Amino acid sequence: MTLLELSDVSVHYGRIQAVSGLTLTVNEGEIVTLIGANGAGKSTTMRAISGIRPVSSGSIRFDGEDITKLRADLRVVRGISQAPEGRGIFPGMTILENLDMGAYARKDRKNLEPEIEHVFELFPRLKERKSQMGGTLSGGEQQMLAIGRALMAKPRLLLLDEPSMGLAPQFIQQIFRIITEINKEGTTVLLVEQNAQQALSRAHRAYVLETGEITKTGTGRELLADDSIKEAYLGVG
Ligand code: ATP
């Protein structure tokens, strides 16, 4: 079943066109990754899906309904949750308070214990530091917190914008392992990554974005084996 569908989406910043006529789908249960160079329009695409940035043309459908003009907070209620690039956690709040904030859109937020425990199982490091202020966490820990907070909304679609950015190698492995685990538990994932090797090997399908346009799509495995992808994004060839 198609969960997310972007049809001919364009996004502008003033006169700059960041995304041009982009069409993509994410099926329920998939991990789909969007790879591309700096400035290709990956983050802008994510912002259009989460509703932070309006589209200038085209449409976005989620779970069979048109959400092109729906407010960002109402998209969270529908089941779209984003862990933004640059982490965006609340530095003056503790880990626990940050996690609570992630559930703000839920109607059933009286009992958050099970989800908090679930996040702590995925990220034991956060449990050890649950009363520590977000702003004092390391970069890798903040990234874990951002993902954990996004999960607190119990999303159907989790948007991850460069979760491996700035992380030490052992954290990178861990983050990708956890993304696969979250997906196996039933959450659909759309992942933006510069670490194309890891992203393609974890993803069911992938899209390549170049200067605002999709130039290639296929399974993760197909793109990993593609010579032009190897040369441009995998540092081999
Ligand atoms: P990166 O991997 O470097 O984060 P990206 O693929 O996510 O890149 P975007 O951040 O979506 O790319 O940017 C796409 C284009 O839109 C770039 O040319 C960028 O300069 C431009 N852009 C992004 N945000 C703004 C903004 N707030 N105002 C003006 N132009 C912007």
Automatic annotation (TrEMBL):
It holds the Pfam family ABC_tran. Keywords: Amino-acid transport, ATP-binding, Nucleotide-binding, Transport. Gene3D superfamilies: P-loop containing nucleotide triphosphate hydrolases. GO terms for biological process: L-amino acid transport. One of its GO terms (molecular function) is branched-chain amino acid transmembrane transporter activity. It comes from the Bacteria. Residues 4-236 form the ABC transporter domain. Belongs to the ABC transporter superfamily. This is ABC transporter ATP-binding protein. It comes from Amycolatopsis antarctica.
